[in-house]
Fold this sequence. Notes:
The chain is α/β, with parallel strands linked by helices. It has a single domain, classed as Purple Acid Phosphatase, chain A, domain 2, CATH 3.60.21.10. The chain is 33% helix and 24% strand. The strands form two sheets. The protein has a seven-stranded mixed sheet with strand order 5-4-3-2-10-11-12. It has a five-stranded mixed sheet with strand order 1-6-7-8-9, with helices on one face. Helix 2 (47-59) packs parallel to helix 4. It starts with a helix and ends in a 5-residue tail after the last strand.
Amino acid sequence: MGIINQILNKAYKNAEIVDININSKIIFFSDLHKGDNSYADDFKQNMKIYNHALQNYFKKGYTYIELGDGIELWENKSFAPIYHAHKSTFELLKLFNSKNRLYLLWGNHDMEFRDPIFVEKLRNEFFLPKNIADKNILFNLKYYESLLLKIEKTNKNIFVLHGHQADYMNYVHWKFHRFFVRYFWKNMQKWFGIRDPTSPAKNYKGLIRVEKKLNNWIVNNNNQMIICGHTHRPRFPDPGELPHFNDGSCVHPHSIIGIEIVNLKISLIKWYEYLDEKTNKKIMKKVILEGPTDIVKFI
């Protein structure tokens, strides 16, 4: 058994169980790469779109599942400037958390969050509760490597993870990659526009390699349905194809792409901003790119 299969098998075995049913409403986003609002912050151009979308989902009772790389800790040494640059976004996460409708996964760019002590230190520094009641709400925040969405009254489930588990260097040797991104490629990108070769999202061969390894794992595990991120490339298969879904990213040009599950139907969606010619005002809009399709057709 190869090392990638061992990593994926372990993530599957240790996944946090989350029960879902016909009434469940879930939105998946990933790969925000929230930074410090500098030139290297890929998220800042889409922050308003993302916040608008999350406010909409919160009002409608959705559960928010963030599939890793929510925070850019490769290019940034400290969480503090990220928090202050995107405080409004973190306040939205706190709202979901207060209603027990938040699940955060860690990816390769925020692997530090797999350490509960690291998470606790950040909570103590930036999310101090106002009173005892708030403490019980805010201090139950956890980060997970993976989730297993179990569909009520069936033996079917959906495996949810960031996806870098199929990317050996970004999972096992992520500190090595972080060093080069933080101290080398960040400046090369600024000065010469050179793409980061450590990222499958910017390296086509790496992207294909990761997707193939995930596909192989799906085949070897009875066509287990997965939803992941990491590559930034949206995937929405047709029924009968391998059930490998990818929610894209929140750093696409002037748009964010995600996956919704509503009434046990799955859809690929996009939020974007456009200028209304009649009112000359910018408007946020959601469009369905694929679906909705019954999940039962993939499991």
